[in-house]
Amino acid sequence: SYGKMWGTPGAAVRSIRPYQSSEQYLYAMKEDLAEWLKELYDLDIEVGTFVEVLETGAVLCSHANNVTHVAGEFARAFPGVACHLRLPAAGVACNLTAQPGTFQARDNVSNFIQWCRKEMDIKDVLMFETEDLVLRKNEKNFVLCLLELARRAARFGMRAPTLVQMEEEIEEELRQELDLLPADTPLPQPPRKPRDLHNLDQMVQHLVSRCTCPIQFPMIKISEGKYRVGDSDTLIFVRILREHVMVRVGGGWDTLEHYLDKHDPCRCTS
């Protein structure tokens, strides 16, 4: 059926894209986590080799031990704040020479999973199973778990991926709007790079313009990176992550393209 696809309009465009919109947000998250791990540990890792580099569990266990180490430093520096946070106390046993697919690799990954549950209190809904990574059964669960771990470790001073930094900025914006007091943890925040939002609106309008409804699906800019969507009063936050336009939804992220595929009437194919 692949040959036939070339006959359909837009097929050439579609085939160049390495993923469907439903997989795009996963690709964007993997890209972000890969860049973050690369910077953090000087690793040779990118979105294409993401699973290969991590599947032996060696990097994951080393990361877990580093997170525990950072937590210890934090507890010594800010005992007042630390007593209100749940900090990891124990590290994890690790076989650094484990080969992919072996018992040792499974053991590493399994140790990492137990550590996430016990020391970081990550809930089951955001956890993955050994086979999800070792046999690549469910990359999504694995990626969501790593992101959640990064989110929690950022609370006690670990450097965070861009997505987590953007989440914090959005939380801050919401707090200011509601006139709430700043978050109760007075952490020394690393200086934030101001986000480049000036061509964000163009990117948003470009994606919205693909709508073919008689009356275009509306996305109205309220302020930089914030839009009112559809006929509802729903407000969404939008950010650029490399070449992806990301939307903050619930506790997670989606790409704007996939979000529109689900909400714009002409794109919600049954």
Automatic annotation (TrEMBL):
- Identify the keywords attached in UniProt to this record, alphabetized: Cytoplasm, Cytoskeleton
- CDD domains in alphabetical order: CH_GAS2L1_2 (cd21268)
Query: Major location, coarse class?
Result: cytoplasm
PROSITE patterns in the record, alphabetically?
CH, GAR
User: Do you know which InterPro entries this protein is assigned to?
Assistant: CH_dom, CH_dom_sf, GAR_dom, GAR_dom_sf
Identify a single GO molecular function assigned to this protein: actin filament binding
Q: Which residues form a coiled coil?
A: none
GO CC, one annotated term: stress fiber
Where would I find the Calponin-homology (CH) domain in this sequence? Answer: 27-154
Q: Where in the cell is it found?
A: Cytoplasm, Cytoskeleton
> In what residue span(s) does the GAR domain sit?
195-267
GO biological process annotation, one example = protein localization to microtubule plus-end
| PANTHER family the UniProt entry points to | GAS2-LIKE PROTEIN 2, TRANSGELIN
* Family membership noted in the UniProt record: Belongs to the GAS2 family.
- Protein name per the record: GAS2-like 2
